[in-house]
Amino acid sequence: xxxxxxxxxxxxxxxxxxxxxxxxxxxxxxxxxxxxxxxxxxxxxxxxxxxxxxxxxxxxxxxxxxxxxxxxxxxxxxxxxxxxxxxxxxxxxxxxxxxxxxxxxxxxxxxxxxxxxxxxxxxxxxxxxxxxxxxxxxxxxxxxxxxxxxxxxxxxxxxxxxxxxxxxxxxxxxxxxxxxxxxxxxxxxxxxxxxxxxxxxxxxxxxxxxxxxxxxxxxxxxxxxxxxxxxxxxxxxxxxxxxxxxxxxxxxxxxxxxxxxxxxxxxxxxxxxxxxxxxxxxxxxxxxxxxxxxxxxxxxxxxxxxxxxxxxxxxxxxxxxxxxxxxxxxxxxxxxxxxxxxxxxxxxxxxxxxxxxxxxxxxxxxxxxxxxxxxxxxxxxxxxxxxxxxxxxxxxxxxxxxxxxxxxxxxxxxxxxxxxxxxxxxxxxxxxxxxxxxxxxxxxxxxxxxxxxxxxxxxxxxxxxxxxxxxxxxxxxxxxxxxxxxxxxxxxxxxxxxxxxxxxxxxxxxxxxxxxxxxxxxxxxxxxxxxxxxxxxxxxxxxxxxxxxxxxxxxxxxxxxxxxxxxxxxxxxxxxxxxxxxxxxxxxxxxxxxxxxxxxxxxxxxxxxxxxxxxxxxxxxxxxxxxxxxxxxxxxxxxxxxxxxxxxxxxxxxxxxxxxxxxxxxxxxxxxxxxxxxxxxxxxxxxxxxxxxxxxxxxxxxxxxxxxxxxxxxx
Length: 715
Known about the structure:
The protein is α/β, with parallel strands linked by helices. It contains 30 helices and 15 strands. Helix 3 crosses helix 5 and helix 8 (115-121) packs across helix 11 (154-170). The longest helix has 51 residues, at 263-313. The chain starts with a helix and ends with a strand. The mean pLDDT is 94.
């Protein structure tokens, strides 16, 4: 295992960050610190590395340690086999990828029974070595290895030698790398329909891949994941093909045949190399390249999913607003729930304004009474079936200001409504009411509500079930953790689930905090956290700065300033001859601080003081409220109303590598392909669009049969 300094050096090389900062992050991580804590409260120690930097170091550290663990295993395995040499030891030490380590280990790895195994059992390995030496007459040498009942004749002996040499070729790092390089550089991925599945493919989402061909180095993430899924469903046959006239096999032969081999030996070695290429090297390289493409595609898809989830979780809330929520429907009616500003259910019912009941007048009267009694500030309508019709019903009957009617994504609401958490939060209410409440709460505080749902059920991302599930879970869990801590959590109102995502807390401590709060009332200060069962000094250190107390004894408890820095704030206040209570929100007073001067006096570190001043400028402010929130008013009610050339309003609902899906207020989503985002070329959808963004797009094409709508933002 690498020493701490060597480990820091290797990680720093991977992430291209200063080694001193990387070393500090590794030490903090190993001491149990979280990424949000390190990036927020240990800037002076890390050199102000950002959360993105710290997360990259954490990921690289895990990869380097996994590589070092594998190296340790390989060293031991080769040593136990009595085959370790100084040269091998050096190659293992210098290997910087898992592939390089596995290439070194390949000749020594326990093997399943092969043709080469059988040849060795017949005693033919010495013959293979004689031929590889490149001298003498191979056939004459082979006669010495003929054994009645074991090796029938020279031809069988030579074939056995070829099998052994083919295995040597397949274990050659040089040849394995050559074939992999050739595939990466020259090969194309080619698709064709599975025989008998042409019609099924034509009716599937993968119809466009029926004759798809692209160079491997140009194959995008979504393309590769799409063809893999179609292949797994038995619709596509996928293979790697070299261009006509390619002579990669000739290059392999040239590399394998010793330069001084005579003509007879070279011919047999060439045959062995060709056999190794077709039977072992090429299939092995294709497997390796497939794994590389899959890993890269997974990385892109997971990154997009995580970024989209972050946008969704950090959508601006409507804090302090009372909501009237609708879960629209036709035959089953529209579920209605009135919520107070904290998301508590005040009243619920079902109305039937749409076909087949068409009780619009009665429904309007019911809603009017609810509005009069519960006094909602805004309306939230789920974006599922009958969403557009419900919005039109409210507008037609003049029940509410259209500018305050919001269309809210329903994705995952049914998952929440059927959960134990929902039953605990809304006891005695059926799942339809719980789902409606969830829709309304998403408008009040998207982050607090959406964390109750498995991120994979929220309705964003691409090919989420095709990517590495462990990596996906890790990325999404981290994204939720990052968002919760970026916003901060009200210690006296946060749910158990929300508290569990605070740095250093987790599910058990979250439950203990809620239990303490229930038994003792609201927390009066952050320090009171230390009275919570099993919440020790380490958990307090990691969590306290991310927890807020509004109206508590200490105004600093409602900021992102960590309690460990309260002494610094007091020293800063004394420096100006004022009280700590004079500082929060007092811009002119805060402008008087000279950071360099405070640092020179030993009051605190540069980054810590700068962050303290920034927090004092906006005490208690939710960073999400700095983004505008606007209601979406659909301009169409059915796909049949759409025609090429017309313009429609929509709201961005999901972002993928190939484009953005837009909710138009109807059942079918529109797709803005990445090529239609702008008149200029863009590298990613995220350059132009964000989740929840209102757009006005031009209709390019409407496929009524497939319910596909193509949109464009280009002029």
